[in-house]
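User: I've been trying to design a sequence by hand for this structure and keep getting stuck. Would you show me what you'd pick, starting by listing the structure so we're on the same page?

Assistant: Good idea, let's start from the same input. This is the structure you sent:
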């Protein structure tokens, strides 16, 4: 029988991307969702894009095992120390990916109107061609990739409750990604993006 636990390698030019639909089982995923929703100090920042300032269309929080800040879209985030839940998740991902992460940027999408526009995670703090591990809990959302030099090359997947998306070599250098808005009446979604800040 086909198991939903098997990782899937996405066919993407110039990039290595692996999707684990059920990296966490349903009871782990439920528990992590509830704990993080309640215990994370979610904030809504103002960002500046193309010279215009507006509220970010989602809530965020930054955690790190160092004091290093993370800056993007005109904001500088200061980290909280990792809590037990995030450390547990980080360890499991580090074991699977054979990569160590220093930092976790958490996103809370309150409903289908919250989103994350086209970008690559290529801030200078992350060094060249970073590896990013992205965990999803809560409502399922569609995630898009678009090749930077060949925008007709696209990839789209549904990020499930308890899933892990490993964006490895080439992904941030050659592709953009986004989490578009949806008109569907859906619940909240928590996303954790583990990163390594080297500078
Ligand atoms: O919510 C997601 O799945 C994507 C988040 C993301 O791309 C980011 O925080 O850089
Ligand atoms: Mn991203």
């Amino acid at each position: 029988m086909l198991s939903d636990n098997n990782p899937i390698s996405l066919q993407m030019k110039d990039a290595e991307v692996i999707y684990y639909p059920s990296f966490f089982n349903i009871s782990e995923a439920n528990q992590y969702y509830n704990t993080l929703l309640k215990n994370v100090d979610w904030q809504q920042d103002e960002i500046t894009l193309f010279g215009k300032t507006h509220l970010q269309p989602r809530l965020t929080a930054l955690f790190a095992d160092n004091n290093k800040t993370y800056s993007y879209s005109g904001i500088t985030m200061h980290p909280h120390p990792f809590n037990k839940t995030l450390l547990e998740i980080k360890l499991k991902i580090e074991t699977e990916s054979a990569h160590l992460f220093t930092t976790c940027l958490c996103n809370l999408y309150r409903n289908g109107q919250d989103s994350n526009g086209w970008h690559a995670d290529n801030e200078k703090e992350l060094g060249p061609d970073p590896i990013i591990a992205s965990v999803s809990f809560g409502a399922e959302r569609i995630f898009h990739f678009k090749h930077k030099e060949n925008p007709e090359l696209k990839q789209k997947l549904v990020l499930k409750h308890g899933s892990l998306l490993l964006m490895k070599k080439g992904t941030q250098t050659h592709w953009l990604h986004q989490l578009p808005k949806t008109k569907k009446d859906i619940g909240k979604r928590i996303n954790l993006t583990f990163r390594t800040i080297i500078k």
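That's my pick for every position. To get oriented when you compare it with your attempt: The radius of gyration is 16 Å. The chain has a mean pLDDT of 95.
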